[in-house]
Specification:
The chain is mostly helical. Helices cover about 70% and strands about 0% of the residues.
């Protein structure tokens, strides 16, 4: 009696392990890839659906150029201040001799604060530093300090800078602490043996090694600030001329709106933030070679 032949296995079968990432794939497809493709295609379409470059040409107007420049300036300032303050705080925790029990609360708070944005963040700052905010009234009644008299207005460009720092600084802390932890003690000891001071060690050894991480994190903070819209719109409304607010005005569907021009604005934002993220990834990869 001949033996039964085993069933032929299918030539291609999706491993069960891949089923675990299917929700992520679906989420990325529905909320990242397809919307991005819609934006890119819409930037090169006219209202009747035909191909055109007019939308990109229309970006070369005074209002839109000023919006891009204001957004870039806002992102550069918040990224620079976020890097400086966040690096100082992270270095104080890692090398400053502070109690080790402070590290865990700082990282926990940074993880929460770096994702705290949008309308809740704007409302929190209005309730704290707004014209009738808690701190504003407290400084005025207790110390006679009128923030408005000193030129500070939360509902302005610099007010938005202060608000953005609430999530820029924690993001810097989260990213730079692992890089600081990667600095080997042997490097510092070797520098000390050779007669280098603490300042010389940082100038000649530590900072050159950390420079790719610092520059890459700066690029990431720039992209993070450049794409923020909900916080800016909730805090300042349409009075501040930045790209995310102008984009919102174009695609919200009112009489003066031009969705295809909005797609072109968004396409420009994608290009700028994409370049910033590519710079971050490249520099991060370079810095990890030293820190491994």
């Amino acid at each position: 009696m001949p033996l039964a032949r085993p069933r032929a296995r299918p030539k291609w079968r999706l491993p069960v392990e891949w089923l675990g990432i299917m929700p992520f794939v679906a989420f990325a497809l529905l909320f990242l890839i397809l919307p991005t493709m819609k934006i890119v295609i819409g930037a090169f379409q006219s209202p009747d659906g035909s191909f055109t470059l007019q939308n990109l040409i229309d970006l070369n107007t005074d209002s839109i150029r000023n919006a891009y420049w204001t957004s870039i300036k806002l992102s550069l300032i918040t990224a620079l201040l976020g890097c400086a303050v966040g690096f100082a705080m992270a270095a104080a925790v890692v090398f400053g001799g502070l109690p080790k029990r402070l590290r865990s609360p700082l990282l926990t708070f940074s993880g929460v604060a770096s994702n705290f944005a949008g309308v809740p963040l704007a409302f929190a700052f209005i309730a704290t530093l707004g014209p009738a905010g808690l701190v504003t009234l407290w400084l005025k009644t207790e110390f006679g300090i009128n923030l408005r008299a000193y030129g500070f207005n939360l509902l302005s460009f610099w007010g938005l800078v202060v608000t953005y720092l609430f999530f820029q600084i924690p993001l810097m802390i989260l990213i730079i602490i692992p890089a600081l932890d990667g600095l080997k003690r042997e490097w510092r000891e070797a520098a000390e043996v050779l007669g280098a001071t603490w300042a010389q060690y940082w100038r000649m050894v530590a900072l050159p090694i950390l420079f790719p991480s610092l520059l890459g994190t700066f690029a990431l903070l720039f992209a993070n600030s450049f794409g923020a819209v909900a916080t800016a719109f909730a805090l300042t409304g349409p009075q501040l001329n930045i790209v995310p607010i102008k984009l919102f005005a174009q695609i919200r569907g009112d009489v003066l709106g031009n969705p295809n021009l909005g797609y072109a604005l968004a396409f420009g934002m994608i290009v700028i933030t994409g370049l910033a993220n590519v710079i971050y990834i490249v520099l991060r990869t370079r810095s990890e070679r030293w820190l491994k």
